[in-house]
Amino acid sequence: MRCRAALTRVDAARTGELEASEQTALHDHLKRCRSCGESLHDVERFARAAKSLAIAPPRPCCEGDHVDQIDDVWIAFSDKGLRMIHRGGTLQEFARRYAHRYGRPLESRKLPSSLRKQVSDALRGEGVDKPQLDVDDASELEMKVMKTLTHIPRGEVRTYTWLAAQIGRPRAVRAVANFCARNVVPYVVPCHRVVPSTGGVGNYAFGSPAKRDLLRREGVDVDALDALARHRVRYIGSKTTNVVCFPTCKDAKRIREENRVPFHRAAEAIEKGFRPCRRCQPFAA
Predict the structure, then answer these.
(1) Which CATH number covers residue 204?
(2) Is there a single domain that holds both residue 216 and residue 142?
(3) Domain for residue 175, yes or no?
(4) How far is CA 209 from CA 86, 198, 274, in A?
(5) Does a structural domain hold residue 150?
(6) Residue 58 lies in a domain
(7) What angle do helix axes 222-230 and 208-218 make, rounded to 10 degrees?
(8) CB atoms within 10 A of CB 235
(9) pLDDT at 62
(10) Could you tell me where the DSSP H helices lie in the chain?
(11) In whole angstroms, how far apart are CA 33 and each of 6, 12, 29, 43, 46?
């Protein structure tokens, strides 16, 4: 792999969108090439510096920002809705994280029952259909991503590629993946239901084991996803209907074992006369 090709694939490797063979080649190149390694370090340092400058303007003083806790999960909220959720750490660390993003301090206050129920339901794996949020600093693209994430059914997963296509930005896979990685209201906005196109469960802000546990609570067979990933199976078709779905789709789960047809690529399914499921839209936005 040449240097130029390696540097254009760094972000895709970080978000899990590279094929296994390309990812291996990239890692081998970065180990050998000192120049690319230094360039990667410079890019990461610049990204961190840019983020540190991106502080939203302060809200009016009459609008309070509050904090409460459920187990080891910190929740920042306003009178309008949830503003930030983070698992682990101390109150001081969470307050610094919040001030870094919003430029405002937090005051302790009991979480309203409606918001407490939403967070508690999400943590238990019950999901939240319409989360009550106050994320006024989000961009138009981020708002579209959040809205689409909440439409992914409980017990199912989708890919970053699918998510980008659904919001009408099929080329913005990396931007979508980056947003999911820094989602400020996880659990209630289920970024954990998005997985790499290459298969498996992928990474998560609170660690892959936490993501797997949360998906299991919601009814996803993560072991089955791992098995499919090992065989590079991305879609499941039905011999009786000629419909192809994501493996976790509700309709795919109904297909009898003898009628299941595994597919590695969308083109493979199309070539054999299968059409995409209207419900999960595996490769049709």
Answers:
(1) 1.10.10.10
(2) yes
(3) yes
(4) 16, 18, 35
(5) yes
(6) no
(7) 120
(8) 25
(9) 47
(10) 3-8, 10-14, 20-32, 34-53, 91-102, 113-124, 140-149, 160-166, 173-181, 208-218, 222-230, 266-271
(11) 10, 19, 6, 16, 20
Question: If you search the block for the tokens 């694939």, which residue do you land on?
Answer: 9
* Chain segment 224-270, per-residue pLDDT in tens: 999 999 999 999 999 999 999 999 999 999 999 999 999 999 999 99
Asked if residue 284 is part of any domain, the answer here is yes
Domain with 261 in it: 231-285
Does the reported pTM lie above 0.70? yes
> Between helices 34-53 and 20-32, what is the axis angle to 10°?
100
CATH of the domain at 240: 3.40.10.10
**Are 125 and 68 spatial neighbours (Cβ–Cβ below 8 Å)?**
no
Catalytic residue among 36, 191, 245, 280: 191
The answer to whether the CB of 215 falls within 8 A of the CB of 156 is: no
Residue written as token pair 């660390």: 93
As given in the structure block, the two tokens for residue 208 are 């892959």
Residues in CB range of 93: below 8 A, 6 or more apart:
none
Would you state the structure tokens that stand for residue 32, as one six-digit string?
A: 């050998």
Q: Show the tokens assigned to 81.
A: 């809705």
Contact 259, 243 (CB under 8 A): no
Q: Total structural domains in the chain?
A: 4
Q: Is 191 a catalytic residue?
A: yes
